Fold this sequence. Notes:
The chain is α+β, with helices and mostly antiparallel strands. It is 48% helix and 20% strand.
Amino acid sequence: MADSYKHSYKVGENLLTSLSVYNVGYQKCEPKYQWGPGIRDHYCIHYILSGSGYYTVGSMSRRLSKGDTFILYPGVEVQYCADSEEPWEYGWAGFMGADAASIIRNTAFTKETPYILQGRIPEEKLRDGLERIYQVKGNTYEAAVAMAGALYSFLAVFMHYGEKKNQKKEIRSTYVEKAEKYIETNYSYPVTVEDVAAYVGISRSHLFRSFQTYLGKSPKEYLSEYRIKQACHLLKETDLSVSAIAYSVGFENNLYFSKAFKKQKRVSPSEYRKDRKTQQSFQKDSLSNY
């Protein structure tokens, strides 16, 4: 049996927003070498080069071996352990970014079946894809871009050999997610639905259809509801004036803000603030009496 080893490279601060490599490496494990139970804050794909081991998520435990691939989802508790007789050797690539979730959804990986067995994807494509990421590793911005490019190519292999069911539906879902993230970041500015559609890269009508399909509401309704939700938080937690709160959540017209707020909450912003403060005072009195 060859001696165990571990070659791991973790990227520093040059992480890209859309998709970036978090770490990449290779490891020949010792018998019964185990990671977890634990969680990662990023995605991580492992491709088994030789040997075997056990991969456990929740109540599911699966023996995997040479040619198989498994993925770790961020925030999901996992455990994996090398075989006692033929411990596995694997390469891995950890990654994160705004594009990561939608890309993985378009592969054969799922949280119910977070592995792909040998034979579904040509082994040389998986080996070469990982090796390209590893070869361009580095801690400069240029290296970060090069690794991201290699990572996109590597993940494209999984997409190519994944199931193509509901691909049109998945693409629309991606548009909605991208729009939601833009709104979450920019709601405090006077952005419009046209701005959101331009950021996503589709027409306003296409964005409208996507939102209706997945959320049952228009982009305009979603944007207004998100702003009102943030306004509610500011009304409860701060002493800012109603006018200041209106501007803070992207309404340039205070009267329009009040009308939009009352339409959703059935009360004016001032009444909402008064009701919430009364409730908080009542709760405090109840606790002190208790």
